[in-house]
Amino acid sequence: MATSLADIRAKLQASENRTGGNSQSGGDNAIYPHWNIAEGTTARIRFLPDANTKNTFFWIERLIIKLPFAGIKGQPDSKPTFVQVPCVEMWGESCPVLAEVRGWYKDESLKETANKYWKKRSYLFQGFVRDNPIGDDKTPENPIRRFIISPQIFNLIKNALMDPELENLPTDYEGGLDFTVKKTSKGGYADYSTSSWARKESAITADETAAIEKFGLYNLADFLPKKPSEAELRIIKEMFEASVDGEAYDPERWGAYYKPSGFKGNDDAAHPAPAQSAPAPVAKLAPAITDDDIPAFDADETSAPVAAAKPSSQRAEDILAMIRNRQK
């Protein structure tokens, strides 16, 4: 295995020469941690639409890159750690990390390293928890929870939407469907492959309707990480290169931008500016979706709730048709 970024680049360049070059919590308990349910139990969820009516779907995709570091500089006893940074492919732009990593997959010996730096995909939903097997999980004042859904569960959600017998959106207030998260294990790891949509339609309750009217729905995009500026992308690239080279995380260089999970360093630590003007410090990942809250699958609430509006049956048909067309 290559020992440094320079080694990887040299190896890839050599390969190119031989071939002639023809070769993605804020303390309010809003996030529902379904991954904490006990094995053999189920949680029943009723998903709700996005407040952003321009969003075709009732979810939003989240792409994160995890940068592993050997430890934290200045802390001799620190253990290996990682820093999560947003992948700008979420906004349809070119990611400097993936631009480098994609080429590594051409070399079989670099695939394991490439996988470490590849984007981690998850999906943000919102809705009610109707059956909650987590005994110490308390429903917040606003019972509309947010859900970070792994690709395994998301594929079950998406595939069911392609069923031609499905007539209504699962988020329909009158004829929608609950989704049951079932946790089992497979090969020593949590497995959710038996999760499924309910067979019988149901309407939202009077209490749920009152909660929507009182608190409004979330605009899911408000809970994505802050989009990095060009200068901040240079910081991400610098951290990536240091990570690949096996360096420790340096709080003085990067502490004002991105931090390891749970790191409590000085936000005002001095750090060298990028090649051009220094950017303002980057906010942490989106409110109530912090590194500490989310499992490996990969701030304060300030956004005002948006008043909810029940989607029309025509809008439901349009969304289902668009999903199916994209699948084709």
Describe the structure concisely:
The protein is 25% helix and 16% strand. The protein is of the alpha+beta class and 328 residues long. The protein is elongated.
The second-level CATH architecture is: Alpha-Beta Complex
Give the CATH class: Alpha Beta
Helical segment tally?
A: 8
What is the beta-strand fraction?
A: 15-25%
Shape annotation: elongated
The ordered H/E elements are HEEEHHEEHEEEEHHHH
Show unreliable segments: 1-5, 19-27, 267-293, 298-316
Helix fraction, binned, reads 25-40%
**Structural domain count:** 1
The CATH topology is Replication Fork Single-Stranded DNA Binding Protein
Superfamily (CATH H level) name: Replication Fork Single-Stranded Dna Binding Protein
Can you count the beta strands? 9
Structural class: alpha+beta
Task: Determine Rg (CA atoms, Å).
Answer: 22 Å
Describe the protein's topology.
Layout: H1 5-19, E1 42-47, E2 60-69, E3 81-86, H2 96-101, H3 111-117, E4 120-131, E5 145-149, H4 151-161, E6 179-182, E7 184-186, E8 189-191, E9 196-197, H5 206-215, H6 230-244, H7 251-254, H8 313-327
Antiparallel strand pairs: 1-4, 1-6, 2-3, 2-4, 4-5, 6-9, 7-8
Please tell me about this protein's structure.
The chain is of the alpha+beta class. The chain has a single domain (25-225, 286-327), classed as Replication Fork Single-Stranded DNA Binding Protein (Alpha-Beta Complex), CATH 3.90.198.10. The protein has helices at residues 5-19, 96-101, 111-117, 151-161, 206-215, 230-244, 251-254, 313-327; strands at 42-47, 60-69, 81-86, 120-131, 145-149, 179-182, 184-186, 189-191, 196-197. The strands form two sheets. Strands 1, 2, 3, 4, 5, 6 and 9 form a seven-stranded antiparallel β-sheet that branches. A two-stranded antiparallel sheet has the order 7-8.
